[in-house]
UniProtKB/TrEMBL annotation:
Membrane-spanning segments: 41-60, 72-90, 120-140, 152-170, 182-203
Protein name: Aluminum-activated malate transporter 2-like
Principal subcellular localisation of the protein: membrane
Gene (UniProt): LOC111020785
Localization annotation: Membrane
Keywords, alphabetical: Ion channel, Ion transport, Membrane, Transmembrane, Transmembrane helix, Transport
Family recorded in the similarity comment: Belongs to the aromatic acid exporter (TC 2.A.85) family.
Topological type in the membrane: Multi-pass membrane protein
Keyword Signal attributed: no
Any single GO BP term: monoatomic ion transmembrane transport
GO CC, one annotated term: membrane
UniProt entry tagged with the keyword Metal-binding: no
InterPro entries associated with the record: ALMT
Amino acid sequence: MEMKTSDRGGGPKAMGEKLMQEVAELANKTKKVGKDDPRRIVHSLKVALAITIVSLFYYFEPLYDNFGASSIWAIITVIVVFEFSVGTTLGKGLNRGMATSIGGALGFGAHYIASFSGKIAHPVLLGIFICIIAAATTYFRFVPKLKARYDYGLLIFMLTFSMVTVSSFRDDEILKLAWHRLINILIGGLVAVVICIFVRPVWAGSDLHQMVATNIENLGTFFEGFGVDYFGASQGESVGGANTNMLKYRSVLSSKQNEESLMPVEMKTQYQEHCLQLCTESGKALKAMAMAIRDITPPTTAESHIEKANKTTEELKTLLTSSHFNGGMEMVLATTLIILLIDSFSCSQKIADSVHELVSLARLKTVAPPQSDVAPVEHQSLSHAADHHVITINHTQQSAE
């Protein structure tokens, strides 16, 4: 009996401790969300401010007398439209405003047409109109281009048309009702957009900027860890560190193919040095380009790594053409690995060219080269050849004029 009593007494205590642990864990996660990105806290306060402002339509009698119960649509609009970034808020606000206007106008038009049919045919025509609009709008939502950009607007259009059409059958002042509803929606959307823009705005371009840089950096980390993971631990690096680097690849692509290595040890030792060097230089170049994107500066530090990787690529091609193996499968495996690495490096070169183009188009502040204008082009590095080639063309055009 004493043991049963102690068990019963320990049950609620254990449940209480477990509940406290879950509450503490939830509090830590909540704190971490705000610590990782303080803009989330600011966004929460901005939404609260917008809802408080539009709720004044209910609190003050002069405003409530003018708009009536339709004031609730201003609050609903703020809750639905207000998003984290300015661009998303503007997009949803425009979608909701246009969809409400078009849906309300068509709903009033449907009521006006059906009113001439008499009391018996009036609800029948309204039902037919609602059926046609609902079916057509729902079908258009399956179109990929419309779903990507106007799915929310199509949904609001169908909702507004249905509400105006159904309400018009019992309410004689349907035009006044639709007008008040439209005004409240526009006011709610305007309040949300103004607060989102002028109170600590969050622009999607800055997030995209950081996301691109992070993806390129993670891809560079993957390249650095790929060689160690493929050939085994070497050069003082542990396998655990290589596995951590390999996980960076998953943040760039949604999935990763896991293949077992079937290459013989003899071939590994023959290609290991070149493959490791190619992976390392490609990874360092990608990291340098990621840093350049973050700082909005030309990727000058990546040029030396690209040149070294380019030399290693040529050596790998030469080594592959001059090597002979016993068995066709070994040759296929070796060729596949080397070609994949070379293709990956060519993609890194394309990324470097794109970063250079981005710098030139944005007219970023760069340091002028110490050479004079008559310096020969062939003494420049390969990565600057395209820039000096453009200058030479302009000089030729001026002389021709």
